[in-house]
Fold:
Amino acid sequence: MRRARSAGPVPRLLVFALLGVVVLSSCVGVPPPPAEARIVIFHSNDVHGKIDNFAKVAAVIEAERKSGADVLFFSAGDNFTGDPVVDRYEPPGEPVRKVLDRLRLDVLTIGNHEFDYGLGTLRKLAARFPTVSANLEARPGVFPELKPWVVLMTKSGIRMAVFGLIQIEPVSGIPSTHPDKIKDLRFGDPLAKALEMKTLRASGEVLIGLTHIGYKQDLLLAGRMPELDVIIGGHSHTRIDPAELVNGVLVAQTGADNQFLGRIDLRLKDGRVVEKSGRLIDLGLMRDEDKKIKAMIAKFHRNPALARVIAKAPFEITGKDDLGSLMTDAIREAHGLDIALHNNGGIRLKSLPTAITLKDIYTLEPFGNLIVEIAMTPDEIRSLIKSSFEKQDEIDLQVSGMSYLIRTDGNQKIKDIKLSHPDGSPMAEDRTYKVGLSSYVASSYRFDHQDPGRSLQTTVADDLIRYLQSGVDLGVYRNVQRAFWEKAAESSRD
Structure:
C-alpha cells in the first residue's frame, strides 16, 4: 500500500488557507468506498535505533498481509539515536532507513531525535517515505519532502487522511533537540495546528493523528478533536495496552525501544468506522522472523571496533546517580574544570557492565554533544539548577565538583538551593567557577550566565572513554548521590 494523494507542492504558508479546497477537490472522481472493509494498522514509536526486533515485526506484518485485510505500517517518530550499531554506521542512521524500506513503511511523523544526525539525513529518510508534520514549517527549499498531511488509499479503496505533529518545549518553543540542528525550521503549537486539520475529515473515511507529542498531549488532543478516529502517538514512551478510547478517539502508543509492536483494527461499513480497537504485541514472545531482514540486521552488527573492551569495573555501575557521577567526573577531569553537570535525559543506559565496551559508551551517551565551558557564579549555577528542576518537576542534573540541595515548599516550588563543595563546606558566593556542560544543556536550558561560554571541542563520550582508559578506580561508583531534594509536607487543598 502506498500514498495516493498528499498536500502536494503547495507552499506551506498557503496550505492551510487552501486546505478546504484541496480536500474537496481531492474527492472529485474518486469511487465510493466499499460497503465493508477491515483495516489493520501496525505502528511503532521511539525505536531509538533498536533494529534487532524488526525481523519479528516483518514476520508479523507479512502474515497479516496474507490474510486479505488492508494492512499498513506507521511510525510515530524517534527512529534514530540510542544504539551505536545505527549511530556509528556510515552514513549514520542508514540501517534504520534500509530496514524500514524492506518493511514497506507507509507514513512517518518526525520525532525530536530525527534531527540528531542533521537535516540532511532526515531529508534522505523523508525522501523515501511519506513524512508528515503539520506544526513544522521550513524556509522555501529547505525541506521540500515534508508535508503537513497525506491521504493514503488502501487496496480496497478506503481513503485515510493522516497528519503529523511534533512536540515543542514550553519555554524554548522548539523540540527537545540541539538548536543548531533546526536553524532553518519553525515550529507551531501542536494542538493549535491539529485543530486546523479538522477539515481533513471530509477527505477520507478515516482520520488519523500520527503524533510525537506525548501521552498527556494526545489525551488533550482527543478531548478537543472528536473528528479523529485514531491517535497513534510517541515521545513519552508510554505503553498503552489495550489502546484507550477517549472522547470516541482511539489513543495508542507502544512504549519504546522496539520491544512492542502496536496493532490497531478498524472495521468500516458504508465508509464509516464502526469498530476500533488496539493492542500491543510483545516481540519478546515472538519466534517467527523474516530471514532476509534478520540477515541484513546481522550484517549491520558486524563492527568489531564497538566490541573492544576499554575498562573493567568490579561491579555493574547502575542508575542515573552513579552513571551521572561517572560521566560528570570524566568531563571535569578531562578539562581541569571546577564543576561539571549533565542532564538525566542524556543518560541512555540503565547500567554499565563489568566489562565496558565502546558500544556501551556510545549507547550510554549517543548524542555526540560537545562540552562547553562557562564561567559561572553560584547564583548563575542556582539559576541553571532551578531551570532544570522546573523543566522536569524533579532533579535533573547530575554533578561533579560540588553537591546541591533543593528545598521546596508543599507545592513543590523551590524555596532555596544550597551549594556545597565535595567536603560539605559552602561554596564561596563571591567566586566564579569554571563549569562544564554538554552543548545540549548549554543551548537548550534557560539560565543566567554573563559568560557566553566556549566549546572545548570534545564530546561527553570522548571524555568518558579517556577517563575509563586512564585506569580510574571504578569501585567508587556505587550509591553515589550529589543532588538532593528536601520536600516540605504537601499543602492542604480545599
User: Anything to note?
Assistant: The domain at 305-487 is CATH 3.90.780.10 (5'-nucleotidase;  domain 2). Residues 410 and 489 are 5 Å apart (CA to CA). The radius of gyration is 24 Å.
